Amino acid sequence: MLYFNNDYNEICHPAVLKKISESAGLQNPGYGTDSCCARAAELVRKKCAAPNAVVHFLVGGTQTNLTVIAASLRPHQGVIAADSGHVNVHETGAIEATGHKVILVPSRDGKVRPEQAAKIVESQSLSMDAEHIVQPKMVYISNPTEYGTMYSLAELEALSAMCKEKGLYLYVDGARMGYGLAAKGNDATLVDYARLCDAFYIGGTKVGAMFGEIVVIPNPSIAEDFRYLMKQRGGMLAKGWLLGLQFEALFEDDLYLQISAHADKMADQIRTTLADLGYKLYLPGDTNQIFVSLPDTLLAELGKEFTYANWEKADENNTVVRFCTSWATVQENVDKLCNALVHLSK
Amino acid sequence: MLYFNNDYNEICHPAVLKKISESAGLQNPGYGTDSCCARAAELVRKKCAAPNAVVHFLVGGTQTNLTVIAASLRPHQGVIAADSGHVNVHETGAIEATGHKVILVPSRDGKVRPEQAAKIVESQSLSMDAEHIVQPKMVYISNPTEYGTMYSLAELEALSAMCKEKGLYLYVDGARMGYGLAAKGNDATLVDYARLCDAFYIGGTKVGAMFGEIVVIPNPSIAEDFRYLMKQRGGMLAKGWLLGLQFEALFEDDLYLQISAHADKMADQIRTTLADLGYKLYLPGDTNQIFVSLPDTLLAELGKEFTYANWEKADENNTVVRFCTSWATVQENVDKLCNALVHLSK
Amino acid sequence: MLYFNNDYNEICHPAVLKKISESAGLQNPGYGTDSCCARAAELVRKKCAAPNAVVHFLVGGTQTNLTVIAASLRPHQGVIAADSGHVNVHETGAIEATGHKVILVPSRDGKVRPEQAAKIVESQSLSMDAEHIVQPKMVYISNPTEYGTMYSLAELEALSAMCKEKGLYLYVDGARMGYGLAAKGNDATLVDYARLCDAFYIGGTKVGAMFGEIVVIPNPSIAEDFRYLMKQRGGMLAKGWLLGLQFEALFEDDLYLQISAHADKMADQIRTTLADLGYKLYLPGDTNQIFVSLPDTLLAELGKEFTYANWEKADENNTVVRFCTSWATVQENVDKLCNALVHLSK
Amino acid sequence: MLYFNNDYNEICHPAVLKKISESAGLQNPGYGTDSCCARAAELVRKKCAAPNAVVHFLVGGTQTNLTVIAASLRPHQGVIAADSGHVNVHETGAIEATGHKVILVPSRDGKVRPEQAAKIVESQSLSMDAEHIVQPKMVYISNPTEYGTMYSLAELEALSAMCKEKGLYLYVDGARMGYGLAAKGNDATLVDYARLCDAFYIGGTKVGAMFGEIVVIPNPSIAEDFRYLMKQRGGMLAKGWLLGLQFEALFEDDLYLQISAHADKMADQIRTTLADLGYKLYLPGDTNQIFVSLPDTLLAELGKEFTYANWEKADENNTVVRFCTSWATVQENVDKLCNALVHLSK
């Protein structure tokens, strides 16, 4: 079986494993107070041109989202998100379990529009019953989104400006940040994120690491006492240097971007094949995720050799599915998938 | 100024005040362990024909909702509600503050349809990622709804049947229960609620009491240790007999239904006047709340003498407003309002 | 049966009931936005000589404690309290249910000493594992304490100074504030509380009101958005003017202090009687609570006519019990109790 | 610098790293649904002779404790622990952040006595104010304790019997379970834990794994929907097979016990040396932790070459410190430490 259903089905990039293996026998202080984490954080701050940003390393994405949000909000405040946002759909209510409402805006492509968030703020703050309504205080976006779409730099600038105007924090879930940064159509850099966001995370789990996410916090009011929150929420890894080592491996020599670009290129080949066959993408995009509606008969055959993720029924005879490439996807397997798609479409 | 903006702008029915006043000088044990509460609870169980139902008294509606929901759910479970539901819109995230997600279904008239809730359950439980999604465990409805509409008995039966089939609790927020029970079109009784629901509350604050709501819990698994939850959430009144006294006054001799019927009749008069003037009700209904779209010019004049609640802009020149009657509304003031509506519509 | 077991067994002072009764038929806006609350708040600010303090009214003490603490702390912060503190012992974990640890200091007399709290702060902040330990951020005291003892002004000054030095908030639970202010040995005034505390509450439920507590918040960082927290935690009374009315009645003409002084005098008579009979008070004090160890044989007889609260076994044959007087205690009943004590001690 | 301050300062046992490295290039489904986790869980069930126990893998200890406790308790329930318990002292209030009180019993040696817990249950349940007091529902112990002491099998049996009698869950934090199982004086096996506990965890992070803890849940009422809780609290590792692989490596061929025995033996040598030098152990024990009071002058010199953990001041001139060995401790370094102790004690 060849896996195209997600981007976290292989252990890690060889350079990451090598770095970890080489550390065998060395002794380190615990909980991220080691020199590997310090060096990795410094690398990240440099890439972000944000010498004052606070940088921490956490194990997983849900943990990261819930810790950042718990650190940012007072009890009566909520976070605005697209209805398809990971914090709303796929974290078993992790945000609510910290006491906070996820305030939804409808979105077909996974993005939050500035005017949607602004309207929520205005509607709440101008209400005669304002104190009976959750106070919006943060906008959560994922970029790339859960649908593989991207915010352009102009869109990020507009969101950030609206947030500043309305007194909202802007937080970006970058579980697939690498695949976004490396995408053909992308025009935003880590420097932009550090400039426009109050907090964001750069995903490792899906982009070459064994596990791990980098939280970058340019806004000091979110950063204050952040490590207490990490510990309280179970997110402080005892052998924290394992995270530092992995991100050293990924951020020295731009390995992170190189392997992301590879995954995007593999996805482009699949997209081109699908387009040539006349299939319509569910949404445009040029990151490592492809959402497309395919005939159920074709999918039944394809599924014998390849995994993909079922998303939703398109109509009686067709289903929207997701194909995912990753840093680990090999050319040979993509060729096989594309050949199979061609063959089964005849 | 004559108040038609809500149904909690007068202190309480004279019979309630009399009962409280007469208790002056008497001594009672605290926290609802007194004989007044015991008698009131027994009255309620009789009206509900539910000799085994557990009955408690709380001070307010938000407090009641959050306590029942906290008592009912495990941490990963959520409550399904209409997007207009009080727990979603007007409780400052009280439910999320207990750690639970409010799972929304769209609703124009404030009602949850059985098929909407069933679909959420199926979609979650059949998902390959079920454990990543909040588990729906309760359906919250308000009856009458926030829009003054009502579930018929057949609709309640259908909801209850679906809940039983899907393993959901059914909980009814009856902040305005009296106005619903007394409405012309209503065909459900307290006996039906006790038969069909796992928990529900009968509102006092808006229906003749100084304050107070009656929680009725037919389902023993929600009732277990409920008083611990009341205390923990700040909802156990020290002088609990004040609640018992009020509900004795309201439930002896059916005062509760009589004063509710009066309010509904007053509202009917306003509805008829509006219809005669050619205004279109926002939603049908025969309880004490009237939602209607009126010209802004008329509203500006009307507002000099009468209060009403702004709901939402209908279009550029019209606004949906709410008129509310209550147990305290006097015929004379309704006549004045109707006359003013007629006069201003000429 | 004559009740001496607690100070909340009668409905309210006649002046309070009169004020409430006189409001029948008047219409008010809801949720504490009325003019009665505004007037009462202004009265309180004047008594406190704190023109900028934020004043709110809540229904009960547990609700008040949990709301103030939830409004004050970030998730990783805790509140220092005596092990006998109400928030630790008698609120069913209400503070923990808001996510915060109650950090205990041992105390025989119910008081927190400045050096105890200071030591906790130093121990935490200087620890190599500081981030693994809850960060103390607030000191909770009750005054009078749960044992009827009192902090002197000098003790309050010392606590406040320590809190300022260590970056802690000082919060006073004044459920029995009146009985403290009126006690013979007391030398602190409301002006002192407003000057020395970040937040405190003046109890009504146990001191003449039907229900209700006044929260005074001199520190603006706790006051910010406080009404959101009140609503979220179920503590915003719909007919908020009921609270305003009661506190107008109690704070016009110093009724609050007069009725408190009466209760303390009644308690003094019981204390004198017990001393004359050779019984030893469990703790010194001159407020409305008396803790004394009495023979079980005497208590068995006494209990046929009088209620008291069992506190703890003193030894095999004696039990520490609490007698409570209140604003409602009448001279005749105190005489009866004292006579019975004398009679049964022969 | 040679590290004796903790037992998590090296990456992992070579067999663990080998197993992980060999998995490079293989593809696995996510979130612990893979065959490695299934095999590891089966190994654990066999070692425990508990074919029906539910087994899950989590990344860290605090995460494990908070997830198990959140899964076990209703909102008004608390967990009894020794005042030195990890959940009380070193988790930044993680348990309180899930809403639950940690109910403390004093303990010099880190153990909870059955009669201490029984007394709390009786005192709460028999109180006239039972509903005002947190309901104890679980006993948390760590074994070995934070002080390196151990419960004997007889002590575990007694605790378990008391818990069953009182309706309490028994939960064991086994962060250092291996070092306990392998200790000279130990007479309890994993089979005993599975028989006597409702839930327990077998630590990996401190005993040979890169990271990871095994949760074993013999009691089905705690096990229900446990994976939802794991996901919600941020504890479900995306590449869950990394946990399965590690525990396969540790539980095939009893590697886990062998490396634990080695660490205990290394600690025995240090203990013997200290005893020979006339130093008094703070507490008896034969696991991998040694608590001993040493002169500050000696410690100052020792600290130039060796790390140890400061615990508390013993008196003006002496400090209680902790030495820790681990699976990774090499004979040569222990010899150096012992020689230095001898040398500096002359």
Describe the structure.
The structure is a homotetramer of 346-residue chains. The two termini of chain A are 22 Å apart. With 346 residues, the first copy, chain A, is an alpha/beta fold. In chain A, α1 crosses α12, α2 packs parallel to α12 (241-251) and α6 packs parallel to α7. Chain A contains 15 helices and 12 strands. Chain A has helices at 14-22, 35-47, 61-72, 86-89, 94-97, 114-125, 153-166, 177-181, 190-196, 220-223, 226-232, 241-251, 255-276, 296-302, 331-344, and strands spanning 2-3, 54-58, 77-82, 102-105, 135-142, 169-174, 199-203, 213-217, 289-295, 306-307, 309-315, 318-324. Chain A has a 7-stranded mixed sheet, sandwiched between helices. In chain A, a hairpin with a 2-residue loop joins β11 and β12 (318-324). Chains in contact: A-B, A-C, A-D, B-C, B-D, C-D. At the A-D interface, β1, α1, α3 and α11 of A face β1, α1, α3 and α11 of D.
